[in-house]
């Protein structure tokens, strides 16, 4: 599933307007992965829901020759369009940037605007080297991220209650409340060892967390979710099951909340938050707990 | 593991210079997650290895009051510093941006430079709403990403050889060559259903891929790695084991290459590539196979 267009509406001047009614081609170019160009470019595009954007990615444009060929390709595509294409690029190399900037489209190079200003502020010269952000530059730090992924996988859904002393955080919540994707994101992006523990009927009957979990109270991130959203997610997994039914969803959430209350824990509401938003909050809590802000 | 400083060197004017010898405080600010500010800001900072940067994250600064308090905090920290702090912000709201821009530091707002220009190019007004990039905006697309994560987890290390018709890509390689983190990244970031299959002695003895895998030849991403790197990774997992020994690593890689050759497949070399770089290439191959560039 990539870029599947969905009819959406946005609200403006007291009425709903159908989104994606105009089209514009967008190119993301970089000498390396192009993740940064995609990130800022797509953020900017998200402010224009009136448009549907046809995105084209051109990573690893690291020679003048590749740049020249690409410029020709873009110019050809640009010719027939009523709305001139947008081009977002992050180029460390000034020569390649110069070639690309000659494109017959709206060219936005995202580094140059800032690189020289920052250099002035810091009083040093920038490296102007590509691949420093997402390449294998710092092997130790990279290996630590991969270790965190392995740890998180091994401690997903409380498959192992041992080794939790190694965890940076332990996410707790009812089944299917989004713990696993959030933990994986924390590991992959931030190198955080994120274990997770699903609350089950055992915990509810015991009226307490297991002692192996409670031991790490300061690392716990307990979560809650609306019964409607949980029902929706579980229905997709096991349609028409008791497990997915509204009464069961509502009752599990209620029992979870009682448990948190009993242990003096305040839950994070995951209902309308994305993995990225949850991870941002958890990283924040984790950093505060380490006195790093 | 976050931001652990490591002594590194960089090469300039024919000599190695110790990196991180100067320090500068950096603030990342956003009304939402701050992922975009972090992404471009950190990309820019990676061009200055002479400095070690103390990074501070301030997501969810979505009111003028929060912005005012933050400006005071930054000004206080800035006072004692010889190098003025850098502030990277992505602000959709002009009023909050105005408050922040008064900070006694080098302030870089990353949206404003482009938002009005793009609006001019497109002939429409930007929404200037926060959380459009990493929030739960398009629920269908978001759910597809989470589905991809679940699929990838269920099809990690060939735990299930069924359901591969649903896979977007199937990564193949010897054990510990980085398939799992790359597949998880593909799923989390791009919503790509990425299964993976580790080559084992069974495959080598059979001199062929299993037919369940070969059936999906057009989806296969076969990988290779240097014996040294594989040895290094496996040693950390099982020190001094036969599994991690150089002869076994070298022989497995050789047998894998013979297999690829037999099936007419060209491998991706993962040796010195990060998860992000590999994913970028795989997405590219996948998009080309779908005739989407």
Automatic annotation (TrEMBL), chains A, B:
NCBIfam families: PRK05339.1
The keyword Cytoplasm is assigned to this record: no
InterPro entries cross-referenced by the UniProt entry: Kinase-pyrophosphorylase
Ranges in coiled-coil conformation: none
Tagged with keyword Kinase: yes
GO molecular function annotation: ATP binding; protein serine/threonine kinase activity
The organism's place on the tree of life at top rank: Bacteria
Pfam family, one: Kinase-PPPase
Protein name: Phosphoenolpyruvate synthase regulatory protein
Keywords: Kinase, Nucleotide-binding, Pyruvate, Serine/threonine-protein kinase, Transferase
Species annotation: Leucothrix pacifica
